Amino acid sequence: MKTFIIIITGVVQGVGFRPFIYNLAKELNLSGTISNTTEGVLITANFKSLKSLRNFLKRIKKEKPGPSVIENTGYREIPFKHFNDFMIEPSKETSEKFQLVSPDLATCNLCIKDIFNRQNKRRYHYPFTNCTNCGPRFTIIKALPYDRSNTTMSAFHMCYDCNKEYQNPQNRRFHAQPNACSKCGPKLILVNSMGIKIDENNPVKTASDKLAEGNIVGIKSLGGFQIACDAGNDDIVRLLRKRKGRPSKPFALMFKSIEDIKKYYKVTKLEEKALQSVAAPIVLLKKRKKIKNNLNKIAESISFNNKFEGIMLPYTPLHHILFDYFKNPLVMTSGNLTEEPITSDNEEAVNKLGSVCDYFLLHDRPVYSRYDDSLVKIFNRKIMILRRARGFAPYPVRLKEDAGLKTILSLGAQEKSTFCILKNQYGILSQHLGDMDNLESTGFFKETLKIYRNLFNINKPDIIAIDKHPGYFTSKYGKKISQNEKVLLLPVQHHKAHAASVIAENRLYGKKIAAFSWDGTGYGDDKKIWGSEVFYINENLEFKRVGHLIEKILPGGEASINNPYRMALTYIYYLCKKKEESFIFENYVYENFKHFGFVSKEELKIITFQINKGFNSIYTTSMGRFFDAISSMLNIKHRATYEGEAAISLEMIIKNNSDDSYKINDLFLSGNKNDKYIIDDIALFAIMAEDFFAGTTPELIALKFHNTLANIILEISKRMRYFYGTEIIALSGGVFQNHFLLEKTFKLLKKNDFQVFTNFQVPVNDGGISLGQAVIALKKKI
Ligand code: ZN
Ligand code: ZN
Ligand code: FE
Questions:
Q1: For a tag on the chain, would you pick the N or C end, based on fewer CB atoms within 10 A?
Q2: CA distance linking residue 175 with residue 193, whole number of Å
Q3: What integer pLDDT is reported at residue 670 of this predicted model?
């Protein structure tokens, strides 16, 4: 007999790992101990031979519990020790104080059985049922190691029966830290919009009745509040829009079952798998054109003309019980006021959301970390994460590069913020923290950063990376931390960070890459607003900006972003000027584009002035603004009530999928050398305007536009392959949320023997910026 110690790291705590090892050891007749440590789990055990040890490890890897993730396994022999039995020992502190934390996990099937089993007195319809395979994790953890005393469950004392389960290694609830039952655990209560108690005996049933009567109900869920209403009731959905100040951004829906979902949406195998995964995210699904007559319709105002809707399945016992009463799909949107972070506190919810919700389902288990629902879609047969929160964060992105002894903290951008901690080979991204445009959001950002630094034991980072934009909250905050803690500060250009995020998650470091960072806005190295970057990136992650659109004035600066028509008018101004010097701009607009009648002569004058004098304006090469301009020029969308609305509307009117495109030969500025690729978007705009005048439908023009952009990417890629020898193409930035464009571009590039990569594990939008910043900071020779 030989004694070995084995250290396993990864997500191995709070996921049923110790009871699994215990039972496996018993089965194999091993003697020894297992305990949680501050870095993972530690097993000390006796083996007959190295072979039997390897066999043990093989079986661990093969049979480990579903939600666990093994990152590293190490073992070494120590002097022989005698053990009588195999035992689970209390948690130990080890020198390394860094370990991964499990995200929250959707209710498992065994727990669902428990809550619908009338015989089960303690758990029938008990909304906080969980076990080692499911339930809250990250949202309730205050500190590590993951023990009950370090969670928000510490205030609840387990009853005799719960404790018995908790102590029994054979039980599914052995050391399930949030373990609870109706006798001892958190309780639900239904209150009205003033916070006055309505029902505490069967609050879920009453809430369901209220929903059926056409009320809006706030529900305290895992990571904060959700707002629910009947998704089949168009009037009530519109009322919710009005109350929430959210005129048109699509709402997510929750369905009782996968069978129900399939009646309304086309669901592929992979989409089904994503919906039913332990992360249980919102999945973007394509609406069916026709649904069966006997089905209740989904309200038009859920997503208007969008071809996709965001759908999820129940992921807590509370949701499951609610759908036991309420049979129709429910709107399930984040419990916040527009642009503010998700609300998690009972009193705060009633105060803030009392004007939105008629009732609230409250409970007394505090949420320590706030957590929105994650949003994903399936692209190229993989899960593509568009908003990364519940079920994913704080699980890291595994990198090729190792930070060694360094720790890097990067703070992301301004919108769809996340921060990232780079340690060892892990890029630990925070959950989605929202737009940093108000005190609530910035407070949430600071609070979450504190939680992560505490959980992952980050005392002093070696570098803090920020966006180059001097006006971003995250840039200013990073600067402040760097001064207070005397840490090196590194500003990173926005679009370089986008490209680097693709390189990081696809482990492409060390290769020559052509990257397209097409985006809404971002502060350029020349202090202008970029957003159509083409980069050549060498083996050392050094960037050369080799292409972009023509520079134009963004009249009125970034304030124009919500008014796509101002961008359209700018393009029209430039194309007029190109045509004839002596034109009268106002007349040209009103004569040719009748739909701009809503723009006053005065405003046109101001725009002209801004373009001519650059007053209150900045130069831009943004691709997002180009989409805006076309959407408005085609009379599709003139104003945006949420980010990307005009561009999304442009994509959504595309009807058929042919390869019809505009000729691209003349769209590169003459004088372009082999190493420079300036795209003449004003010429392309002019061609589309001509097409519009000629009576071509906006549907067809939109199709041709998207195809033209894909062809432009292909053409530049080919030229770069010839000139720089780049075979790998990286696509990133908010523009590539455009499903049609991304799909077309992938197809074209692959057909031409390029290797194409984009973001899957982190958002392709600004939610992935922090990962790119961190990797650039790591590679900077300082
Ligand atoms: Zn369970
Ligand atoms: Zn109990
Ligand atoms: Fe961006």
A1: C
A2: 38
A3: 66
**In 10 A of CB 487, how many CB atoms?**
18
Q: Report the separation in Å between the CA atom of 57 and the middle of ligand 1, taken as the mean of its atom positions.
A: 25
Cα(135) to ligand 1 centroid in Å equals: 7
If one counts every other C-beta atom within 10 angstroms of the C-beta of residue 700, the result is: 16
742 touches 758 (CB < 8 A): yes
Helix (H) or strand (E) holding 51: helix 50-63
Contact status, residue 177 vs residue 146, Cβ threshold 8 Å: yes
Q: What is the pLDDT of residue 116?
A: 98
Q: Give the number of other CB atoms < 10 A from CB of residue 551.
A: 14
Q: Which two tokens stand for residue 83?
A: 């053990």
**Distance of CA 319 from the midpoint of ligand 2 (Å):** 21
Q: Count Cβ atoms below 10 Å from residue 683 Cβ, excluding itself.
A: 18
Looking at residue 781, what is its pLDDT? 63
CA distance 187 to 201: 10
Which pair of structure tokens corresponds to residue 44?
A: 């000390």
How sure is the predictor about 669, in pLDDT bands with cuts at 50, 70 and 90?
confident
Q: What is the pLDDT of residues 197-253, one digit of tens each?
A: 999 999 999 999 999 999 999 999 999 999 999 999 999 999 999 999 999 999 999
Question: What is the distance in A from the centroid of ligand 1 to the CA of 297?
Answer: 33
Contact 618, 529 (CB under 8 A): yes
Ligand of minimum distance to the alpha carbon of 111: 1
| Residues 371, 154: Cα–Cα separation, whole Å | 20
Identity of residue 314: P
Query: What ranges make up the beta strands (E) of 434-551?
Result: 463-467, 488-492, 513-518, 532-537, 543-549
Query: What is the distance between the alpha carbons of residues 411 and 480, in angstroms, rounded to a whole number?
Result: 12
- CB-CB contact of 421 with 408 (8 Å): yes
Q: Are 511 and 769 in contact (CB under 8 A)?
A: no
Please state, as a whole number, how many other Cβ atoms lie within 10 Å of the Cβ of residue 253: 26
End-to-end Cα distance, the chain: 51
Give DSSP secondary structure letters for 603-619.
Answer: HHHHHHHHHHH-TT-EE
Q: How far is the CA of 311 from the centre of ligand 1 (A)?
A: 22
Strands 755-757 and 728-732: parallel
User: pLDDT averaged over the chain?
Assistant: 94
Q: Which ligand is nearest to the CA of 624?
A: 3
The average pLDDT across 338-363 equals 91
CA of 448 to the centre of ligand 1 (A): 27
Q: Which ligand is nearest to the CA of 159?
A: 2
Nearest to 314 by CA among 302, 327, 299, 305: 327
CA 116 → CA 111, 224, 260, 322, 732, distances in Å? 9, 25, 19, 12, 45
What sign for the dihedral angle of Cα 147, 148, 151, 154? negative
Classify residue 348 by its DSSP letter. Answer: H
Reported as type and span, the H/E element at residue 361 is: strand 359-363
Provide the Cα torsion 587, 591, 595, 597; round to 10°. Answer: 40
Distant-in-sequence, close-in-space partners of 70: CB < 8 Å, separation ≥ 6:
8, 9, 10, 12, 60, 61, 64
Q: Which of these ranges, 86-100, 156-170, 249-263, 268-282, has the smallest mean pLDDT? A: 86-100
Indicate the DSSP class of residue 378: E
Asked if residue 500 lies in contact with residue 772, where contact means CB atoms within 8 angstroms, the answer is yes
Average pLDDT over residues 523-534: 96
What per-residue confidence (pLDDT) applies to 782? 52
